[in-house]
Amino acid sequence: MFLNKLEKKIRVFFITWIAFAAIIILIAALAHLGAFNSRISNIKIEEIKANPQLAAAVQLWRKQGATENQIEQQVLKIADGQAAPAIAVMKKASFRAAVIAVISCVLFYFLFVKIKNINQQKILIVAAIIGLLLIDQVYIAHKYIMAEPTELTLHKPEAIAKLLTAEKPFRVSVVDKAAYNLWVTSLFKLHGIECIEVPADSRPSPLRKIFFYSNAISPVKRWQYSNVKYILGHRRDMELFLGRLGVRDDFALFYSYDLNGQKHAVYEYKNTLPRVYAVGNWIVLTNTEEAVKVMNSPSTDPRKTAVVMDNSISEQSLSNFSSSVKIDSYEPEEIKASITLSAPGIVALITEPAPDWKVKVDGKEKEIFRCNLMHQGVLVQAGNHSVEFYFAPREFWVRALHKYAYAALPVLLIISIALAFLSRKNIK
Predict the structure, then answer these.
(1) What is the sign of the dihedral through the CA atoms of 100, 104, 105 and 110?
(2) How many domains does the chain have?
(3) Residue 174 confidence (pLDDT) above 90
(4) pTM score, two decimals?
């Protein structure tokens, strides 16, 4: 009687397994047939159109005599080129998940349907295959899903340990990149510290190149606009460097330590912009070069004035504007803040705008616009408000495939093994 009940549960479980595998196979087939290519390309088109550099390029193409159809074809060509890597990753991920799902179904069949014909050798072979699958899934989960146990894999320098005690959110910058090569490439990121020297992508956008990799903006202005609260480097060299820039009084010694037999230090920047801030004054400049000049000017205080890069926003200048901004919760892709404004103003987040970034003011979705080259802003009326910036990617199914398919298959394999042993035990 118990065996019959168990076999019924196994039957239901097997059907569930097959349905799950069929969904993964269907997604993989659609991905390889290109069913999602146009959707990903359309997302890239929106990202490109949100870039002010493209607007300038389109105007130049029109002056050169290009037709609207030619311009559209050129934009499509750029979008297809940027979408290609995402499509390749999607196909690879879906194919691998489908292969593992099929193998798992076959193993399930041999363990349960053919259980009476199983001998010791077959059991060992099947167990070995399942073991390899589990190892593969654990590796994938460890690499793409689970948090990296950095204290076991890499040491934690005392400077990083000290920075981890500081209140987030903040970013750091290194003055001597050669001495901090390992930190920049691995340690900062693995320990959850945001560093502006760590590239966000292998091919930065034109705006990112101007802001992070050119001399158009001075180091101090770059730190200020990037929410860099701490800088690291050789102590004597940093003292000289900050002195030459004329900003030594704006930095306070946060921590001193030895690195490679030399004295190094972490300095705290007093005038950096907070991750979320509010201003009551702004000018509108859509030309990138003009916007950068205003931002880099010593007379421009970004805590009071913003450069808006959207012609649909009207300029504003208030002499007695005041604001209060309190970050209630912070994650890199979800920031909630309580805001109090004395008059209508701009609430800005120091994160580059992208089509998948959204903002809600008092629970209602609002339009995001670009300001200060690398910030996203939203217009907010006077009074007390709750503001939430959050990242909501539309290609969520790709992320879900990576996360849930790879996470579910090992669980199903483990349950199958457990049921197989229980069934064999009851048969005996």
Answers:
(1) positive
(2) 3
(3) yes
(4) 0.63
